[in-house]
């Protein structure tokens, strides 16, 4: 029998006579030990102690944490460990410390065994391993707590209780549909999934059904057909284009299933986003960082948040669902970039930006918008969710539309999942309220003024403090181009024409729109409506992202 096992079993024997023996022993402990107990209580802190006392202890036992034996307590919400002989420096000079892990952060528990090389099963029990996440700012990292005790009976009873407690957490997926776009950005999506995500899913016993997409629209067609009720969630490994396609697919599928062609229906399954693209704006917005491990841990732990989406329609016909749209500069710039697909994404973007700036021209259009309602609460405060669910956007018809007619260099509509955290609107507010989007309309201006505005776009201040820039918090927008000259005519003088197939193509003069980084050509008026909490994403509410994200549209 190994030294470790013998020691642990010895300890267990001591503790095996458990509480009774401990309680019996208590009157015998000397003053010195009482003082130590007193110190321990102080160290745990008053608040923690009160919380702990209000929760009943489910399990108590002795485990080795590190090199020393600890008294380990398990309640419904936490696992705490306290050194049996506290505050004493160990042989290596370090001090044994008490610790705590919240069960909401634990995603797996395993029995540790000592096995001979090559053996797949059996082996002597060594104790438990608890896999949990720890926070570093917005970043979530994987960590493991090792609890050593060589008694198989003791270890298994702890394992069973912990397993049962972990299954009680709602929102944690058991089976997910995964889409990987192998062509995203540097073509690293498959590696990112295999190296950073799959091991965590395996550890948390999440089963997966993986589709590696082979073309644009592949995930949409799979989502239209597949049996959704088998899955607990959908995972997208890719960039913003892939995310947009899947968000659109999830809402469209909900609409088809509910046989509701007119009214958008909330998506049934949550979507997890593993960033593997070139911009990853949505991922940054719901995770606060661009990090596949953080994203995977949010999925594993079932952190969910509902977010707004916009519906885009033209001539009464639905076009798609998405988070953002750009008309004018953003649309034209993307249309130019799409013609140079053979270039690397950064070169393509740079080329399109420079070329569109060189040919800068305003769009003559009629812009109408409905201001976001202020009645439920302050415009940029949090709304009452129950009221919000009752109050469908369609009931806002009594509100009057504001209409402006004129020349615009750029018009953008962004709902909160794509808002650059650095964006501050003119009134000083950042993210719009749920159920509203930000409308940023850039009027006609000189090229140099427009460039100044663009340069400040991803900085934290002053990007809208130009007389030619208007910002509004809106619940619906209509844009009707008045010019008869669409983009194809303008572009016909360009060298090459290798445009990828747009999602819809209209007859006559059409205008390029950038909807979530995807090129969509539309000839007529476009109607955009914000739908509160239309889709659920794995992640958490983020006030400010750690990393600065740049807008995918320019
Ligand atoms: N195998 C494939 N080949 C080509 N395109 C694909 C393939 N699979 C998916 N797509 C499409 O590629 C488009 C762009 O993908 P994605 O957004 O993941 O990458 P990206 O453009 O590099 O990243 P970002 O959007 O963050 O800049 C999406 O519209 C997606 O539908």
Multimer state: single chain
Query: Tell me about the biggest sheet?
Result: 10 strands, antiparallel
Mean pLDDT: 79
Classify the helix fraction into a percent range. 25-40%
Annotated CATH topology of the largest domain? Tumour Suppressor Smad4
State the helix count.
15
The kinds of small molecule bound in this structure are: adenosine-5'-triphosphate
Q: Note the overall shape.
A: elongated
Secondary-structure-based class equals alpha+beta
Q: Low-confidence parts lasting 5 or more residues at pLDDT below 50?
A: 1-36, 374-396, 421-430, 495-507, 547-554
Distance between the termini: 66 Å
Number of strand segments: 21
C-alpha Rg (nearest Å): 29 Å
The assigned CATH architecture of the largest domain is: Sandwich
Number of spatially distinct domains: 3
**Beta strand %:** 25-35%
What is the CATH domain class of the largest domain?
Answer: Mainly Beta
Protein name: DAGKc domain-containing protein
Domain DAGKc: 171-316
Biased composition (Basic and acidic residues): 38-49, 381-390
Region (Disordered): 1-53, 379-399
């Amino acid at each position: 029998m190994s030294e470790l096992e013998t020691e642990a079993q010895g300890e267990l024997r001591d503790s095996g006579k458990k509480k009774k023996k401990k309680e019996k022993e208590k009157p015998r402990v000397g003053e010195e030990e009482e003082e130590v107990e007193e110190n321990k209580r102080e160290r745990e802190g008053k608040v923690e102690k009160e919380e702990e006392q209000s929760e009943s202890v489910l399990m108590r036992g002795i485990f080795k944490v590190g090199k020393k034996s600890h008294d380990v307590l398990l309640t419904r919400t936490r696992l705490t460990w306290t050194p049996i002989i506290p505050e004493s420096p160990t042989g290596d000079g370090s001090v044994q410390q008490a610790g705590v892990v919240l069960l909401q952060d634990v995603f797996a528990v395993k029995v540790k065994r000592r096995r001979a090389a090559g053996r797949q099963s059996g082996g002597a029990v060594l104790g438990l391993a608890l896999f949990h996440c720890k926070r570093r700012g917005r970043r979530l990292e994987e960590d493991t707590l090792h609890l050593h005790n060589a008694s198989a009976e003791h270890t298994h009873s702890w394992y069973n209780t912990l397993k049962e407690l972990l299954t009680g957490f709602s929102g944690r997926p058991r089976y997910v549909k995964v889409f990987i776009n192998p062509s995203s950005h540097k073509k690293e999506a498959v590696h990112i999934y295999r190296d950073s995500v799959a091991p965590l899913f395996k550890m948390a016993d999440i089963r997966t059904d993986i589709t590696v997409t082979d073309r644009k629209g592949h995930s949409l067609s799979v989502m239209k057909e597949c049996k959704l009720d088998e899955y607990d969630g959908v995972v997208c490994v890719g960039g913003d284009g892939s995310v947009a396609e899947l968000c659109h697919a999830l809402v469209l599928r909900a609409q088809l299933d509910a046989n509701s062609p007119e009214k958008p229906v909330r998506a049934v399954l949550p979507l997890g986003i593993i960033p593997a693209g070139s911009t990853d704006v949505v991922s940054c917005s719901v995770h606060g960082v661009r990090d596949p491990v953080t994203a995977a841990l949010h999925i594993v732990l079932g952190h969910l948040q509902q977010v707004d989406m916009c519906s885009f329609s033209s001539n009464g016909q639905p076009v798609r669902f998405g988070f953002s749209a750009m008309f004018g500069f953003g649309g034209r710039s993307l249309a130019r970039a799409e013609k140079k697909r053979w270039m690397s994404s950064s070169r393509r973007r740079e080329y399109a930006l420079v070329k569109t700036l060189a040919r800068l021209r305003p769009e003559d259009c009629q812009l109408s918008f409905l201001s976001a309602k202020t009645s439920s609460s302050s415009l940029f405060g949090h709304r009452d969710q129950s009221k919000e669910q009752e109050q469908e956007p369609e009931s806002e018809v009594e509100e009057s539309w504001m209409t402006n007619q004129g020349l615009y260099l750029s018009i953008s509509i962004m709902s909160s999942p794509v808002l650059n955290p650095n964006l501050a609107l003119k009134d000083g507010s950042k993210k719009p309220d749920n159920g509203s989007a930000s409308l940023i309309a850039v009027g006609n201006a000189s090229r140099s003024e427009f460039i100044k505005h663009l340069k400040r776009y991803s900085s934290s201040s002053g990007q809208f403090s130009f007389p030619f820039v208007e910002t509004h918090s809106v619940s619906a927008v209509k844009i009707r181009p008045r010019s008869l000259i669409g983009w194809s005519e303008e572009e016909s003088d360009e060298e090459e024409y290798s445009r990828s197939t747009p999602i819809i193509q209209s007859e006559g003069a059409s205008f390029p729109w950038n909807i979530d980084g995807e090129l969509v050509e539309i000839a007529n008026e476009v109607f955009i409506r914000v739908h509160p909490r239309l889709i659920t994403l794995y992640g958490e509410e983020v006030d400010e992202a750690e990393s600065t994200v740049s807008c995918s549209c320019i």
